[in-house]
Amino acid sequence: MSSALEINNERFNAEAAKWDSNKKHVESVEKAFEAIKQHVPAFGDGSSKNLDVLEIGCGTGLLSFLLAPHVRSLVGVDTSDGMIDAFNSKVAALSDPSKANLAAVKVLLEEPNDVALQGASAALASRRGESGHNAPYNFDLIVSHLTLHHIPSLPDIFSTLFKCLKAGGRIALTDYEDYGPEAITFHAEAKRNGVQRHGIKKDEVEMIIDGTGFNEVRVERVFSLRKEVAAENGQPAQERDFPFLICLGQRSARRRESDASKVFQ
Ligand SMILES: C[S@@+](CC[C@H](N)C(=O)[O-])C[C@H]1O[C@@H](n2cnc3c(N)ncnc32)[C@H](O)[C@@H]1O
Fold this sequence. Notes:
CATH topology: Rossmann fold
GO biological process, one term: methylation
Pfam family, one: Methyltransf_23
Radius of gyration: 18 Å
Shape: globular
Helix content: 25-40%
InterPro entries: SAM-dependent_MTases_sf
Strand order of the largest sheet: 3-2-1-4-5-7-6
Protein name: S-adenosyl-L-methionine-dependent methyltransferase
GO molecular function, one term: methyltransferase activity
Bound molecules: S-adenosylmethionine
Distance between the termini: 46 Å
Number of helices: 9
């Protein structure tokens, strides 16, 4: 029997070539990009060009290519070869790929020292003339769109992301919300295999992010995506609005009071 990861990879490998031609994919990414710009202070105070960004589940790079002109560097990770190939074709089509400030690698990210992640970060750093950095390269901002619902353990991924951040670094992750039983219809029945959860739950994810040790934790509804859902369980085919959440947190430069008290209890 195939694992959820294998099922996902098979699906995304097959969909990669046509991913960007789906208007709903583009619309949801554009809305996520606006939400990130509104919620990450560096985009408001003019310092976003200092940001080294990590993107989890970058896919073909729809969000990555919107963000890249506004930040210093962006490394995307994804588990699907097809998605990474599509991303790389878009980099190769840039007027001067050797100067691109973004790259993608096929990685199931479990630790910040991951060789492929570190290699991609080092390559981008050397392109901008930096050398002699002590590994690991860590990040100022981690983004992700429509990927958390594919990841088996949320506590594990948030713990990994926390370790990938510099002190003061932030997460800004968007995904559709599990707002009730109708959320399951976000995916057509044929695509539900391999989905770990039918959207993310506000309270649950807020508690996990807080428990990981992040500060300034907020999980908020930021937009909705109207899309067609198929007829199912006696309900006709129809258009439905799916709410999306942004998950925010900061790895503080200082240890939290609550963590300090846990240590001394
Ligand atoms: C729904 S697609 C979204 C792609 C892209 N973020 C976008 O919005 O166009 C989910 C992506 O997450 C990737 N993915 C699934 N599980 C993953 C994991 N554990 N780590 C990294 N990427 C993963 C899939 O290969 C796929 O490219």
